[in-house]
Specification:
The complex is a heterotrimer. Chain B is 28% helix and 21% strand. Chain B contains twelve helices and twelve strands. Chain B is globular and about 60 Å long. Chain C is built from eight helices and six strands, in the order βαααββαβββαααα. Chain C starts with 5 loop residues before the first strand and ends with a helix. Classes of the chains: A alpha+beta, B alpha+beta, C alpha+beta. At the B-C interface, β1, α1, α2, β3 and α6 of B face β1, α1, α2, α3 and β5 of C. Chain A: It comes from Fibrisoma montanum. Chain A: GO terms for molecular function: iron ion binding; oxidoreductase activity. Chain A: This is Xanthine dehydrogenase family protein molybdopterin-binding subunit.
Chain lengths: 740, 332, 215
C-alpha cells in the first residue's frame, strides 16, 4: 500500500511540538505527579542558622503527629556508602566534597535540610515538619562577597588565560577600566524540584525526578548507594523547566531515596518555592573588572578581565565567566583571571549561559563604554575588532556568521537611525535608548547513542537517554529521524528521559541537538543500511540485487530511482519474517573537529523606553540575529531565542537574589519578590536565524541555540539605558531606584 | 499548615460571635492573603470563619455616593460601570494591584486587611515586631528597600516597625474620602478611611483600628468632582504583578485650568495609605501647572526619612507626585 | 430549607460518605451548639476535641462539581483545591508552581471565573463548579480552540505553566480583557512563564479572540 504524502516534518520545518497535545491537556506528567500505590509524602525541615552545628534535634512531637511514618535526620538516616567514600575529584564535575544530606550535625548554609518528615498525606507531613525542633551551636558566618574579597583564591580547576602582554590596555591611547557587578540569579523554573523514590528491592531503586540528565543522575545515585547500573532507574520524561538547576542530584532526590528506604514505601519530596532558592544551585554573584585599551581608530590593543565569583565552603564551583572575552575580539594582548570567594552558602550551579551571561555583561558594557570614549559607533567598534579566527588558540572557526548577524540585525533594527548622543532621543515623555551587543557561546558535541526500533506496524521508535526541558528535543529528534528515514513524522516516536535508554549527554551547554541529533541521524542511517541489505539480499524481493546507487528512501519505503515500485519498510520486515528491526548506534565527532574552534554567535539590538521621572525601563523592541548553525525546527528555534530574550530582560532589569547577610537568609525567596519578567514585560521581538549549516560540529549542521541569545543581552539593555539616560549602570539589575 | 476548624455562618451576628468567642479565629473571604500567611506559619487560626455566605456583594448608589459591599470582588468593582464612570481612580488602582486571578478572588474587605509584604514579617525565622511583638525589627538595620519613609517607629527596638501597607486599592480609597461601615460586638459604626489603618506606633502588630470581632460590611464613597481628572501611578520593579515601590493616587477637579479641589495619596511609603492633606491644600485654587505640582510635592515630602536601602524613595516620590498630577490634569 | 445560624459547609442537602458520617454528626452538632452560646461553647469544643489539632483533623464531606461530574469527597479543612486535585484525585493537569498565589500555574475556573487553586480551600468549593485543564475541551477527543492555538503558536516550552496559561487565557477573553495585545499583556501577567513564551502566548490569544470561536 502506498503511504500518504509525508507531512511537514523535515529538518528545519516549523513542525508543531509532538508533545504539544500532552502539554496543553495537562496529560504530561512531571516529577511530582507519579501518585504510585502506597505513596507517602516527605517534607523537609530546614535550618534557621547559616553556620554551626546541630546541638539537639527533637523529633518526638513530629513522630507523634497524626499520619507520620518516620522522621529522618542525621541521627537515624540510612547510611550512604558514597558519602563515606568522599568525592572523587578526578571524576566529579565540581571540585570539593558534595553536600551530604542528613550526614552529620554540620550546618553549611541557611535553609539547609536537617530532617525529612514522612506522612501519609501532604498536609500531615507539612504540619509535622513544623514540629521538628532544632537547637544549634551557631558559628559566625559570611555570606557577602563584597566584604570577603581578600579570601579570593584561584580554583583547583583554573580558568586563567593570557596572550601577549598582561595589562597592555594601560598603555593604549584610549582606555577604560571599569568594575561591574552581577547578582545572584535563581533559576526558578515554574516546576518546583521534586523526586519520588521507590526501593523495589534492597539493592534496586527507581527515581522519578526532574533531571536534565538521567544518565548523570543514575551515575550519581549508583555511586552514592553503591548500586549496579541496572538497579538504578531514573525517569524524567517531562521537566518543567530547569535552566541548569537539574544538572546534579540534590537534597530532594537524596531525601526521597533515604526516606523510602526508611519507610519501605514510595516517598515523594517536593521542594517548597523558598527551598528552590538554595537547594538546587543558583547563578553566583560576580565582581568583575574590565580594562580595554585601543588605538584612536578603535583597534583593541589590550584587554584585561578579572572576575571573582562566589562558591560554597565545601565545593569550588567554576563557570565560564571569562570565556567570551578570550575569543570574541581580536586583541594581541589579553589576560583573564578568575578567582573564587568561599562563603557560607550552598554551592552555586550552572545557570543558563553559565558564566558567559555574567562575563559578557561586563565585556559588552565595557565595549560600549570604550566606543563612547573613542567617539565611535559601538557596532563599528565591534566590526573593527572582528576576529577572523579564534584568537584564544588561533584555530579557524568551524563556521562564523557573526558579521551577517551584525549586518542583518542592524538593518532590521534600524541602527543607522540612532543618534549616538545620550538622552537625545524621545518618544512622547519617554527617553528612548538604543543599545547593542555581541554574543559568543561554545558549540559542542559529545558522544551520544540512540536505539532505533522499526516495528511491524510501521512505527519507528527511537530512544535515547536525553532530556527535553523545553527546547523541543522530542520534536526535533522526531524530525531528524523522519527526515533521515524518509518517514512520515506520524510514524516516528522519539522517547527520552529514561536511564535505561542508550547513553546521552545531559541537556545543558546547548549541545543536545548536535550530540543526540547526530546519534539519531546516525542510527537512522544504520537502520536504512540494514533495511537496504534485507531488501536487496532477499530472493523474491522487488529490490532483489538492486544496486545501492539506484535506491531512494522516501515515503516510508525504499524505491528504485525514477520508478514507483519498491518496498515499504514494513514489507521488508514481513519479507524477512522479522517482527521488528532494532539498531543501536553510538555517535561521536571525529578528530577533524579538534582543528577548529566551534562557537555559536549572536548580535542583539535593543530599544528601551525609560520614564524620566519614575526610572521604570521598558524593553520595547528586540532584534536578535543568531548564528546557531542549521536550524532543525524554525518554530522551536525561534522560541528558544524569544526565551533567551525574556531571560535577558529578567537579568538586565529585575532579577536579584537578595540575602540579609546578618542572618544569611534570602529576603525575596518567592515569586512575588524575586521578580522574573511577566507578560507585560514582553517586547516586540524579531528573531533572525542565519540558518547556515556547520558541517564540523555535527552531521546535521546544527550548533546550539539554547543559550546564545542570552549572551550579551543584559549589556545591550544596559547600553540602551545609557543611551536613553546618560546613566551607566554597572551593577545589575537596572531597577527604577538606580535611575532616579 | 496547622489544621483548623472551618465554619460558615450565614448571618453577621453569628460571624461576629464566632470571632469574639475565639481569640485566634479569623475571617476568610477570598483567602488570597490569609491562606498564604497560614501556609508560611505567619498566622495559625484555630477556627476559620468563612463569611462568603453573607449578602455583602452589592455595588449600588446609596445616598450621595456609592456603597460597595465588603465581599464585592476586586474585579467586579473595577469593572463595574458605576465605578468606572464615577470613581475611575478606584478602577485604576484596583487594576494596578495583583493579577486578574487574584482580583477575581480578593474582596474589598480582604484587600483592606492584607498584611505587609515586609520580608521579615513573612519569614518566621527572623525577628519582626509585627508578627511577634517584642522580637525586634529585622528591617530597621536590614534590607529595607521596600520600606516606609513616613510615620515609622524606629526608636524602640522592641516596638520598631518600618513596614508599608501593600494595597493599591486603599490608596485610592483614602484619597476618595471613603468611609468604612463595620459591625461588631457593640453594634455598627463608621470609620473614616483615613482612620482605618494605623501607623505602627507602639503596637505594630495592629494594622488597623478594627476591634476584635468587628466585621467590615461596606465601603461608602461620597460623590465628588473627580470623575475626569484622575491618575493612579504605580512605580514597580516590573510592568505588572509587583507591589509598588511608590505609588500615587491623584485626583483633580479643574475649572478653566484652575484647581477647584484636589486629592492626593501615596502607597508604598507608610504603614498606612498615606494621604497628603497639606499638599492638597497647597493645590486648591492654584493653576494646574507643573510649578504648582512641584510645590505640592515638596510639601508632601516634609518629614520623610529614609533608611539604608530606600533613600531612592525620597527622590522618586516627589517626581511621582508631579507626574501623577500632570497626567491627571491632562484633558480627559 | 431549614435555616441555621451556622451551617456547616456542606449543609444538609448531601448525604456525606458513610465513613465520614460519624465525624460529620459530631461536628455539625457541635457547630449548632456554637451558634447558641458562642464563647463558652468554643471553649467547651476545644475540650471535647482535645485541642485544635484533633478538633480539626477530621476530614469533612464536601460535594464539588469537577469538570461536570459531581464528586462527593471528604477533606480536611486545610486542604487546598490544588492539593485535592493533584494529590487526592490524581488530576495533575493543574500545576503547583509557587503555592502562594504568585505564579498562576494553578489557575482553574470556579463558576466560570479564573482563580488560583493554591489559595482556595477545598471546603470552600462546596456546591461550586470547578473546571480544570482536563475538562476544558467539550469532549476528550477534541481540543479547545485555545489549546489548539497554543500548539500552533508554540505558546509553551517546558509545558509546566501551560495549563494555567490556557485556563487564564480563556478567562481573559471571557472577561472581555483581550481586545488588544497591550490588554492581553496586562491581563495575562498573573501567569508566569519562566521559559519566556509570552509573545507566542499573546499571539495565540489574539488569534482565538479574533477568530470569534466560543471559549
Amino acid at each position: 500500500m502506498e503511504e500518504s504524502a509525508v507531512k511537514t516534518g523535515q529538518i528545519g520545518d516549523p513542525l508543531n511540538r509532538v508533545d504539544g497535545r500532552l502539554k496543553v491537556t495537562g496529560g504530561a506528567r512531571y516529577a511530582a505527579e507519579y501518585n504510585l500505590p502506597g505513596i507517602t509524602f516527605g517534607v523537609l525541615t530546614t535550618s534557621t542558622i547559616t553556620k554551626g552545628r546541630i546541638r539537639a534535634i527533637d523529633t518526638k512531637a513530629a513522630e507523634k503527629a497524626p499520619g507520620v511514618l518516620a522522621v529522618v535526620t542525621h541521627k537515624n538516616s540510612p547510611k550512604v556508602p558514597g558519602y563515606e567514600a568522599g568525592t572523587d575529584n578526578a571524576q566529579s564535575r565540581v571540585h570539593g566534597q558534595e553536600f551530604r544530606v542528613f550526614y552529620d550535625d554540620r550546618i553549611y548554609y541557611n535553609n539547609q535540610p536537617v530532617a525529612l518528615v514522612i506522612a501519609d498525606t501532604l498536609e500531615r507531613a507539612t504540619y509535622a515538619a513544623s514540629l521538628v525542633s532544632v537547637t544549634y551551636n551557631e558559628d559566625k558566618h559570611q555570606t557577602n562577597i563584597k566584604t570577603q574579597t581578600e579570601k579570593a583564591f584561584k580554583p583547583e580547576r583554573p580558568e586563567d588565560y593570557a596572550r601577549g602582554e598582561a595589562d597592555a590596555y594601560k598603555t593604549a591611547p584610549v582606555r577604560i577600566e571599569r568594575e561591574y557587578h552581577t547578582p545572584i540569579h535563581v533559576h526558578n523554573p515554574m516546576e518546583p524540584h521534586a523526586a519520588t523514590a521507590v526501593w523495589e528491592a534492597d539493592d534496586k531503586v527507581i527515581i522519578y525526578n526532574k533531571a536534565q540528565g538521567v544518565k548523570l543522575a543514575q551515575k550519581d545515585i549508583m555511586k552514592s548507594f553503591d548500586l549496579k547500573e541496572e538497579n538504578v532507574r531514573v525517569h524524567s520524561p517531562f521537566v518543567g523547566g530547569a535552566f541548569g538547576s537539574s544538572s546534579r542530584i540534590w537534597p530532594q532526590e537524596m531525601a526521597a531515596i533515604l526516606g523510602a528506604k526508611k519507610v519501605g514505601r514510595p516517598v515523594k519530596v517536593v521542594l517548597k518555592r523558598d527551598q528552590v532558592f538554595n537547594m538546587v544551585g543558583y547563578r553566583p554573584r560576580s565582581i568583575q573588572k574590565v580594562g580595554l585599551g585601543a588605538t584612536a581608530d578603535g583597534k583593541l590593543i589590550g584587554v584585561t578581565h578579572e572576575a571573582m565569583g562566589l562558591t560554597s565552603t565545601y565545593e569550588q564551583f567554576t563557570e565560564r565567566i571569562v570565556h567570551p572575552t578570550k575569543s570574541l575580539y581580536r586583541s594581541p594582548n589579553l589576560n583573564a583571571v578568575y578567582k573564587l570567594v568561599p562563603l557560607d552558602l550552598s554551592t552555586p550551579c550552572w545557570t543558563r549561559g553559565p558564566g558567559e551571561s555574567s562575563g559578557s555583561f561586563a565585556l559588552e558594557s565595557a565595549m560600549d563604554e570604550l566606543a563612547y570614549a573613542l567617539n565611535m559607533d559601538p557596532l563599528a567598534l565591534r566590526l573593527k575588532n572582528f576576529a577572523d579566527k579564534d584568537p584564544e588558540n588561533d584555530k579557524p572557526w568551524s563556521s562564523n556568521y557573526l558579521r551577517a548577524c551584525y549586518e542583518r540585525g542592524a538593518e532590521r533594527f534600524g541602527w543607522s537611525k540612532r543618534n549616538p548622543k545620550p538622552r537625545s532621543m524621545r518618544s512622547g515623555d519617554m527617553l528612548v535608548g538604543m543599545g547593542m551587543s555581541a554574543g559568543i557561546y561554545k558549540a559542542e558535541r559529545t558522544t551520544a547513542s540512540a536505539r532505533a526500533k522499526l516495528r511491524s506496524d510501521g512505527l519507528l521508535v527511537v530512544q535515547s537517554a536525553a532530556a527535553d526541558v523545553g527546547p523541543g528535543t522530542y520534536t526535533i529528534m522526531t524530525q531528524i529521524a523522519a527526515d533521515t528515514m524518509g518517514l512520515d513524522v506520524s510514524k516516528v516516536r522519539f522517547e527520552l528521559g529514561d536511564s535505561s535508554f542508550p547513553q546521552a549527554p545531559p541537556q545543558y551547554g546547548s549541545h543536545t541537538t548536535a550530540s543526540v541529533g547526530s546519534a539519531v541521524h546516525d542510527v537512522c542511517v544504520a537502520l536504512k543500511q540494514r533495511l537496504q541489505e534485507l531488501a536487496v539480499n532477499k530472493q523474491g524481493s522487488a529490490l532483489y540485487q538492486a544496486s545501492a546507487d539506484d535506491l531512494v528512501f522516501a515515503d516510508n519505503a525504499i524505491r528504485l530511482k525514477g520508478r514507483s515500485n519498491g518496498l515499504s519498510y514494513t514489507e521488508i520486515l514481513k519479507l524477512n519474517n522479522l517482527p521488528e528491526l532494532e539498531v543501536t548506534k553510538e555517535s561521536k565527532s571525529g578528530p577533524e573537529k579538534e582543528k577548529f574552534s566551534t562557537k555559536s554567535f549572536c548580535a542583539t539590538f535593543i530599544e528601551v523606553h525609560v520614564h524620566p521621572v519614575t526610572g521604570m525601563v521598558q524593553v520595547r523592541r528586540v532584534v536578535s540575529a543568531v548564528d546557531a548553525g542549521r536550524i532543525m525546527n524554525l518554530k522551536t528555534a525561534r522560541s528558544q531565542i524569544l526565551s533567551s530574550t525574556i531571560w535577558g530582560i529578567g537579568m538586565a532589569l529585575m532579577e536579584e537574589g537578595v540575602i540579609d547577610h546578618r542572618f544569611g537568609r534570602y529576603m525575596n525567596k518567592d515569586l512575588a519578590e524575586y521578580h522574573v519578567p511577566v507578560c507585560a514585560d514582553t517586547p516586540d521581538m524579531d528573531v533572525i536565524l542565519i540558518d547556515k549549516p556547520d558541517p564540523i560540529v555535527s552531521p546535521t549542521g546544527a550548533k546550539g541555540i539554547g543559550e546564545i541569545g542570552m549572551v550579551g543581552f543584559a549589556a545591550a539593555v544596559a547600553n540602551a539605558v545609557f543611551h536613553a539616560t546618560g546613566k551607566r549602570i554597572r551593577e545589575l539589575p537596572i531597577t527604577p531606584d538606580k535611575l532616579v | 499548615m496547622i489544621n483548623f476548624q472551618y465554619v460558615r455562618p450565614t448571618t453577621q451576628q453569628a460571624s461576629v460571635a464566632a470571632l469574639t468567642g475565639n481569640p485566634t479565629a479569623q475571617f476568610i473571604a477570598g483567602g488570597t492573603n490569609l491562606i498564604d500567611l497560614m501556609k508560611r506559619g505567619v498566622t495559625a487560626p484555630e477556627t476559620v470563619v468563612d463569611i462568603n455566605a453573607l449578602p455583602l456583594r452589592s455595588i449600588d448608589r446609596q445616598g450621595n455616593g456609592i456603597r460597595i459591599g465588603a465581599l464585592a470582588l476586586n474585579s467586579a468593582v473595577a469593572d463595574h460601570p458605576l465605578i468606572r464612570r464615577q470613581q475611575p481612580l478606584l478602577t485604576q488602582a484596583l487594576n494596578a494591584g495583583a493579577s486578574a486571578q487574584i482580583r477575581n478572588m480578593a474582596t474589598m474587605g480582604g484587600n483592606m486587611l492584607q498584611r505587609t509584604r515586609c520580608h521579615y514579617f513573612y519569614d518566621t525565622a527572623l525577628p519582626c515586631n509585627k508578627r511577634e511583638p517584642g522580637s525586634g525589627c529585622g528591617a530597621l538595620a536590614g534590607f529595607n528597600r521596600i520600606h516606609a519613609i513616613f510615620g515609622t517607629n524606629d526608636r524602640d527596638p522592641k516596638q520598631a516597625c518600618i513596614a508599608v501597607h501593600p494595597s493599591d486599592m486603599c490608596v485610592a480609597l483614602v484619597a476618595l474620602d471613603a468611609t468604612v461601615l463595620v459591625t461588631g460586638p457593640t453594634g455598627e459604626r463608621r470609620i473614616p478611611f483615613i482612620d482605618f489603618h494605623r501607623l505602627p506606633g507602639n503596637t505594630p502588630e495592629r494594622d488597623t483600628n478594627l476591634e476584635r470581632g468587628e466585621l467590615i460590611l461596606a465601603l461608602d464613597i461620597p460623590d465628588n468632582g473627580f470623575a475626569r481628572h484622575v491618575h493612579y501611578l504605580k512605580v514597580r520593579d516590573r510592568n505588572s504583578y509587583a507591589f509598588a515601590l511608590v505609588s500615587v493616587a491623584a485626583a483633580l477637579d479643574l475649572s478653566n485650568g484652575t484647581i477647584r479641589n484636589a486629592r492626593l495619596a501615596m502607597g508604598g511609603v507608610a504603614h498606612k495609605p498615606w494621604r497628603l492633606l497639606d499638599a492638597e491644600k497647597a493645590l486648591i485654587g492654584k493653576p494646574a501647572t507643573e510649578t504648582t505640582f512641584r510645590q505640592a510635592a515638596d510639601l508632601a515630602m516634609q518629614g520623610a526619612k529614609a533608611y539604608e536601602h530606600n533613600a531612592f524613595k525620597l527622590r522618586m516620590s516627589p517626581g511621582a507626585i508631579v507626574e501623577a498630577l500632570k497626567t491627571a490634569a491632562r484633558p480627559a | 430549607m431549614k435555616h441555621r445560624t451556622f451551617s456547616v459547609l456542606f449543609g444538609n442537602e448531601q448525604e456525606p460518605p458513610h465513613t465520614a458520617r460519624r465525624d460529620f454528626l459530631k461536628q455539625s452538632s457541635l457547630l449548632t451548639a456554637l451558634a447558641l452560646a458562642p464563647s463558652s461553647v468554643v471553649q467547651a469544643a476545644e475540650t471535647v476535641f482535645g485541642g485544635r489539632a484533633s478538633s480539626a483533623a477530621e476530614p469533612i464531606p464536601v460535594v464539588i462539581e469537577i469538570n461536570g461530574t459531581s464528586r462527593s469527597l471528604s477533606v480536611e479543612p486545610r486542604v487546598t483545591l490544588l492539593d485535592l486535585l493533584r494529590e487526592q484525585l490524581d488530576m495533575t493537569g493543574t500545576k503547583k508552581g509557587c503555592d502562594y498565589g504568585q505564579c498562576g500555574a494553578c489557575t482553574v475556573h470556579v463558576d466560570g471565573q479564573r482563580v488560583l487553586a493554591c489559595l482556595s480551600l477545598a471546603v470552600m468549593m462546596q456546591g461550586r463548579q470547578v473546571t480544570t485543564i482536563e475538562g476544558l475541551a467539550e469532549n476528550p477527543e477534541q481540543l479547545h480552540p485555545m489549546q489548539e492555538a497554543f500548539i500552533r503558536h508554540d505558546g509553551f516550552q517546558c509545558g509546566y505553566c501551560t495549563p494555567g496559561q490556557i485556563m487564564s487565557a480563556v478567562g481573559c477573553i471571557r472577561e472581555g480583557h483581550a481586545d488588544s495585545a497591550a490588554e492581553i499583556r496586562e491581563y495575562m501577567s498573573g501567569n508566569l512563564c519562566r521559559c519566556g513564551a509570552y509573545s507566542n502566548i499573546i499571539a495565540a490569544i489574539e488569534e482565538v479572540k479574533k477568530g470569534g470561536a466560543k471559549v
